[in-house]
Design brief:
This protein is α/β, with parallel strands linked by helices. The protein has a 6-stranded parallel β-sheet with strand order 5-2-1-6-7-8, sandwiched between helices. Strands 10-9-11-14-13-12 form a 6-stranded mixed β-sheet. Strands 3-4 form a two-stranded antiparallel ribbon. The protein has 2 domains: 137 residues, Rossmann fold, CATH 3.40.50.720; 192 residues, Dihydrodipicolinate Reductase, domain 2 (2-Layer Sandwich). The radius of gyration is 20 Å and the shape is globular. Helix content is 29%, strand content 24%. The structure holds ligand 3JN. The site of ligand 3JN has 10 residues, from loops.
C-alpha cells in the first residue's frame, strides 16, 4: 500500500494527540511521521506505536517530502501553511485562519466532499460546532431545502483546550470542599475578566463582535452557509459554555421549504454516514454528551415538529468536538483524498 509522509503541527496539544490516536486506530497509511510544535514543546518526546519521536520546532523547512501537513489549530498555519504548500504538501488546517478564503475549500467529507477537488494546497476544517451541526443538517437538506436554522450550543470546556478542562476540575473540587473558587481561563483566556464555570453557564464563547454576536456564533453562521453552498440560508446562533468536560451539544431548530415528517427525518438521518439516531422518548433514549465523548459518530435525537411554524423541526445533536469536530474530520479529508487518488 502506498504510504504518505505526514506532519502533525501542534502534536503535543489536545487535537494533535487525538490525531495520533486516530492515525493508529484507523490504520492511516503514514510513511514518515513528523511531530511539529512551537519552540516551547520542541525537544519533548512522544511515544507513538512503540516508537519515540522527538518533537521538532516548526519552520518553513519542516515540510520537505511531506504529503500531508495536519495543522491542529492556532496561529501556526498562518505562519507555515504557505511554506508547506510550496514544499508540495496538502495542508489540512483545523484553525479559522483560512476557512472563509474563497480559494480554500471548507470541508466535512460526508457533507461536501466535492469541494476538496477545488483545493489549491490548503483545505480548511470547519469549527467544531459547525461540523457537528451540518452533519445533522445535510441529510435533511437533501429532503427539502432549509430556509432558516436557529441553533443554541452547549459547548464542553475542552473546546477551550486542556486549560479549560483543568479549570472545571479545579473548580468542582473546590466547590465540593466548600473552598473559594478561582476563575482564570473562561470564558476567554486572553481577556482580563473571568467567570466561574462550575455550576454555571457562560453565554460567551470567544470575543464579541460589533454586531453583538460572539466570534464563535458568527463562525457557525458563515461556515454553515459556505459548506452547504447556500448563501440564502439564514442561520442564527447562540453559543454557550457549559460545565461538561467533553462533547458539544446543540439544540437546532430548522425551517424547511417543504413539509418533512418526523419519520422521514429520522430515516434520512439514520442512513447518513457518521450519524446515529438515538431517539426513543418512550424509553428515555436521547443523545448525551457523556455518551458521545470519545466516539466518532454524531448523535441526533429529540426529533419533533416545531408546531409554532410551518415546516419546522427541532433536533438535539451531540458530538465529540475533538474527534468529529476536529481531528477525525481532518483525517477523513486526507483519507478521502487517498481513496480518490488526489495526492501525489
Ligand atoms: O471553544 C470551543 O468550544 C471551540 C473553539 C474553537 C476555537 C478556539 C480558538 C481558536 C477556534 C476554532 O476552531 O474556530 C479557533 C480558531 O481557529 O479561530
Amino acid at each position: 500500500m502506498k504510504r504518505f509522509n505526514t506532519a502533525i503541527v501542534g502534536a503535543t496539544g489536545a487535537v494533535g494527540q487525538e490525531f495520533l490516536k486516530l492515525i493508529e486506530e484507523r490504520n492511516f497509511p503514514f510513511g514518515e511521521l513528523k511531530m511539529l510544535a512551537s519552540s516551547r514543546s520542541a525537544g519533548k518526546t512522544i511515544n507513538f506505536m512503540g516508537k519515540d519521536y522527538t518533537v521538532e520546532e516548526t519552520t518553513e523547512n519542516s515540510f520537505d517530502g511531506v504529503q500531508f501537513a495536519l495543522f491542529a489549530g492556532g496561529a501556526a498555519s498562518k505562519l507555515f501553511a504557505p511554506a508547506a504548500v510550496k514544499s508540495g504538501a496538502v495542508v489540512i488546517d483545523n484553525s479559522s485562519n483560512f476557512r472563509m478564503d474563497p480559494n480554500v475549500p471548507l470541508v466535512v467529507p460526508e457533507v461536501n466532499p466535492q469541494a476538496i477537488a477545488r483545493h489549491k494546497g490548503i483545505i480548511a476544517n470547519p469549527n467544531c460546532s459547525t461540523i457537528i451541526m451540518v452533519m445533522a443538517l445535510k441529510p435533511l437538506y437533501d429532503l427539502s431545502r432549509i430556509r432558516r436554522v436557529v441553533v443554541s450550543t452547549y459547548q464542553a470546556v475542552s473546546g477551550a483546550g486542556r486549560e479549560g478542562m483543568d479549570e472545571l476540575k479545579t473548580q468542582l473540587e473546590a466547590l465540593a470542599r466548600g473552598e473559594e473558587i478561582q476563575a482564570k481561563i473562561l470564558p476567554v483566556a486572553k481577556l482580563d475578566k473571568h467567570y466561574q464555570i462550575a455550576s454555571n453557564l457562560l453565554p460567551q464563547i470567544d470575543v464579541f463582535m460589533d454586531n453583538l454576536y460572539t466570534k464563535e456564533e458568527m463562525k457557525m453562521v458563515n461556515e454553515t452557509r459556505k459548506i452547504m453552498e447556500d448563501d440564502e440560508l439564514r442561520v442564527t446562533a447562540t453559543t454557550i459554555r457549559v460545565p461538561v468536560y467533553r462533547s458539544h451539544a446543540e439544540s437546532v431548530n430548522i425551517e424547511f421549504e417543504d413539509e418533512i415528517s418526523v419519520e422521514a427525518a429520522r430515516n434520512a438521518l439514520e442512513k447518513f454516514p457518521g450519524v446515529i439516531v438515538r431517539d426513543n422518548p418512550a424509553e428515555m433514549i436521547y443523545p448525551q454528551p457523556l455518551e458521545t465523548s470519545g466516539k466518532d459518530d454524531v448523535e441526533v435525537g429529540r426529533v419533533r415538529k416545531d408546531f409554532s411554524i410551518e415546516h419546522g423541526l427541532n433536533l438535539w445533536v451531540c458530538g465529540d468536538q475533538i474527534r468529529k469536530g476536529a481531528a477525525l474530520n481532518a483525517l477523513q479529508i486526507a483519507e478521502y483524498m487517498i481513496a480518490n487518488d488526489m495526492v501525489f
